[in-house]
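Cross-check.
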Amino acid sequence: MALLEWGRFGRGDRRILKGAITGLLKDGEFRGRLLEVAFVHNLNNATSKWTVLVGVGKQEKFDLVRFRNALHAAARSLRKRGHKEVTVLLTKDLAGKTSPADLARAVTEGVALGNFEIAALKTRHEDAVTRIDGLSIGGLDGQKAAADAVKEAIALADATNQVREWINAPANTFTPSVFVDKVKGAVKGADLEIEVLDMDEMKKLKMGALLAVARGSDEPAKMIVLRYKNGRKGGPMLGLVGKGITFDSGGISIKPAQNMEMMKSDMGGGAAVVGAMLAIAELKPKVNVIGIVPTTENMPSGHAIKPGDVVTGSGGKTIEIINTDAEGRLILSDGITYAVKHGATHIVDIATLTGSIMRTLGPVAMGAFSNDPKLMDLVRRAADLAGERVWELPLWADYDGLMDSQVADLKNASVPWAGATTAAVFLREFVEGRPWVHLDIAGSAWQDAGELKTIPRGPTGSGVRLLAHLAGLLADN
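Predicted model, tokenized:
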């Protein structure tokens, strides 16, 4: 999407709009509830064909996350009517809520995110299927700062929508090998180096945890490594590690059939890492970043790992398999070890990891765990910039030992409670004391709760913008 111009409406247009809006408000046909949308035909009396009122809720509950989502929903409605150019006019009340840059970023991302089409594979569409490729914003001061934020937002939204397309793809068309091909195509021309480890190379590196998960599938596992080098020599290197399970049946510990089709989205964390790296390459923060995506299917077969098996990760730790459906932490452990061995000074892993976090936070927020308050604070700040919600959960010493095994160094599953926490306890064992944050996006990666109106349904691209902003913040610290 491209920015066309700044504030396209003239004074006459504004007078006409004011009259139309006043009538709707007086008659109670529009109340401004969050995500409420009202269409008014301008009857050829204004530059535009339609005026669209978008509700952002009560003033005391206003925040940029809900504002962004409201514009996202409105943009989707406009696309269904065939619109390709949009002007957003901000009221004085809204313009005074926060900085022009933050508002411009939220407007641009909200509208641009509305370009994602979940029904892309349908051959017949009841509504028009268009793409909004022009945006104007009126009602903002500080146009230079806002214009810079718009350019940044377009890069971030485009990367997020790319990730949403991948997450939305059916697993039969998005295998680990296809994932690799998609990433290779996406990074062409970008300021990124790409390396792909195949099964033989992973065997040489003794990635026994990742290879154990891959044993049940006929599809070969891969490890995607992306490098962005724009920081000073000897400076911090951010390691981003994402879970890339392109389909998760649960393996021998097979999942129930209900909703198993959604397990095509179990590569959401890995896709988020790739999307973040694409955005980082365009935004060019002065920091070094390595993005690592171990990717495989988790399938049941005569070759699949079994509960009770013991495998050895690339860092040398032995792991007892208690539940083959706790496979994400296994592949992440080898990814984190790779990041440590290749110089990452700060590590963030991101994964659709546990049903526990879904039951705790639903689709509203990512769950976060950390061993370092400073890095966790940067993640919070990045989330605020990204318009994404993060909630930190504790890793108190009381939980230590829950992943200890009687027959190996660790086990991959433990008590039936605190599942998101025990997964984080397991992953912490592989960071070798480096500052680390674990983001569990099992709830936030896909919104399918019809009762929750504040988040557009479907794949969200959770984590892409947060991780990209985090790289910029780390560069400045």
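The longest strand covers residues 288-298. The CA atoms of residues 390 and 443 lie 11 Å apart. Passed to J.P. for a second look.
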